[in-house]
Amino acid sequence: MDFVGAYAPAHLKFLLEGFVVTLEVAFLSIFFSFLIGIVIGVLRYSRIPFLSPVLAVGVETIRNLPLLLIIFFTYFALPEVGFKLDKFYAAILALVIFESAMLSEIVRSGLNSIEKGQIEAARSSGLTYTQTLWHIVLPQALRRMVPPIVGQFISLLKDTSLAVVIALPELMNHAQIINGQNVNYVIPIFLLVAVMYFVVNYSLSLVSRKLEHKHI
Amino acid sequence: MLDYSILIDHWDVYMQGFANTLKASVLALIGSLAIGTVMAVFRIAPIRPLNWIGAAYVEFIRNIPLILIVFVFFVGLPAIGIRFDSFTAGTLGLTVYTAAFIAEVIRAGILAVPKGQMEAARSSGLTYLQAMWYIILPQAVKIVIPPMGNQFINLVKNSSVLGVIAGLDLMYFGDLISSETFVTFDVYIFVALFYLLLTIPLSLGVGALERRLAKSR
Asked: Which domains does chain A have, with CATH numbers?
């Protein structure tokens, strides 16, 4: 084990650059997944004939597949049908597909947790269904969704490491490149990378726990 | 239209991958149940240093990526002379990772049984162990089964990381077939169907259990 060699300034900088890509991919993915997740969650909650059952099948299928398979799919299989994406966007697309399904379930159970009496009260005060959803149900549900969404973001940050299979230049990929130089770097580098993930994710989980106590 | 000849020609290969995915998932489940139970008890036991060990394990492992843990077994330990084949390294990685989540499920289950139950059992003359075994654990198990099912579903999906280290699972053989046939789309669709064959029945089962449990409360 060579801690001094492994933690050379050039290596630390290289790892940080990888971590920036990890964070970038995670933020972009959670942003788009959140938007799509809200739309799917609301549509499923509204029980629209035909559309809601179709979405249910789609969401359940995605949720029951390994994310790794979806990454392989967007990067290796889509070009075969004429849809070629660069690594960065293939990784984001895969994460968005997977996380939208996950987040739509969080949105749906958040909406379901709002008591039916509130909807009846709003409707009988003269609000339309859409107004009720927008002004009464969604604001309350969104507040309850914050802790599980933070939890999902932690999963997402960890899951970006799966993009190492398509050589996306994120943290795991950069760690592997450094490890390739010298076998004595392997354990020190893995240790440092684990600490980097841990510090960010654990801080997020503390925030999530704090929010949970505030709102319930 | 999917090219079913790929599925028929490579049936044996798909089956071998499917069997190994199942094998890795079941082995990792057994291992992580054992480690998870120990860690959960560590976190609850009235002994401070054990609480710290349990908490450190759960919090550290839960917050780092699975693939990093698998790499530690596959690349890290061999660097100091401890070698595993790829299937074993992958299954060990899965076990260590899943155990942290299972520990939390078990801990939540035990804590969900009202304190009065233990007090009532103890004052009826049962010893601590008898009360735990006959009163607390049966109730905890009922609470724990649905989230445990969810962990098993995650485990089956997560076992696909074996594919990254040539762990002879479904993902790995899918990769192999696609590099042999130069077909990717159809090959991965069949891989997806094999995963769904495992995960969809599990999801439906967990859903049914959750509804039954919600009703009985």
From this structure: 3-215 (1.10.3720.10)
Closest CA to B68 of B101, B93, B31: B93
Domains for chain B: give ranges and CATH numbers. 20-169 (1.10.3720.10)
Predicted model pTM: 0.92
Chain A CB contacts of B80 under 8 Å are: 1, 187
> Per the CB < 8 Å rule, is A67 touching B157?
yes
Angle at A37 between CA A31 and CA B21, to 5 degrees: 95
B21 to chain A, any CB pair closer than 8 A? The answer is no
pLDDT-derived band of residue B131, with 50, 70 and 90 as boundaries?
Answer: confident
CA distance A199 to A166: 26
Instruction: Over range A165-189, report the average pLDDT.
Output: 95
Nearest to A197 among B63, B76, B184 (CB): B63
Asked if B161 lies within 8 A of A186 by C-beta distance, the reply is no
Q: What's the confidence (pLDDT) of residue B210?
A: 86
Whether A194 and B183 lie within 8 Å, measured CB to CB: no
Looking at CA atoms only, how far is residue A159 from chain B in angstroms? 7
Please name which of A67, A33, A75 lies closest in space to residue A168, comparing C-alpha atoms.
A75
What are the tens digits of pLDDT across the range B74-87? 999 998 999 999 99
